[in-house]
Write a structure and sequence with these properties.
InterPro entries: Tnp_DDE_dom (IPR025668). It is a single chain. The chain has about 100 residues and is mainly α. It contains four helices and no strands. The chain has a domain of about 60 residues. Helices cover about 45% and strands about 0% of the residues.
Length: about 100
C-alpha cells in the first residue's frame, strides 16, 4: 500500500496572508465608559469600598491572563485606561490582593 502524497498549499494572495498574520498579534481590550468603575456606598459601618467588584475582577483577570505580578498589573491597567481616554483611578496592588 502506497502513501498518499502530502497536499501542497500555495499562497496566491500574499498581501492578505501577511495582513492575517499581523492581525494574529493584535490585542484589543474595550472598557465600557458606562461601566460602574467606582463602588456605590454599601450603607454599612466601616470604610466603604472605593472600587466596584467589576473593576477588581477586570484587574485580576488581566493579571491572570498575562501572568503579571500585582504591581505590574496596576501599571498595565493604568496605561490601558489612559489609552482608552478614561480618567478613572486605578486600584493599587494592596487593594487587589485583599479583594
Amino acid at each position: 500500500m502506497s502513501k498518499l502524497p502530502r497536499a501542497r498549499y500555495r499562497t496566491t494572495n500574499w498581501k492578505a496572508y501577511n495582513a492575517a498574520l499581523a492581525q494574529r498579534g493584535s490585542l484589543q481590550i474595550w472598557f465600557d465608559p458606562g461601566m460602574q468603575w467606582l463602588s456605590a456606598p454599601t450603607g454599612k459601618r466601616g470604610r466603604q469600598p472605593v472600587f466596584s467588584d467589576a473593576a477588581i475582577q477586570t484587574c485580576l483577570t488581566l493579571k491572570a491572563l498575562f501572568k503579571l505580578p500585582l504591581r505590574q498589573t496596576t501599571g498595565m491597567v493604568a496605561s490601558l485606561l489612559e489609552m482608552a481616554g478614561l480618567d478613572w483611578p486605578v486600584p493599587d496592588f494592596s487593594t487587589l490582593s485583599r479583594r
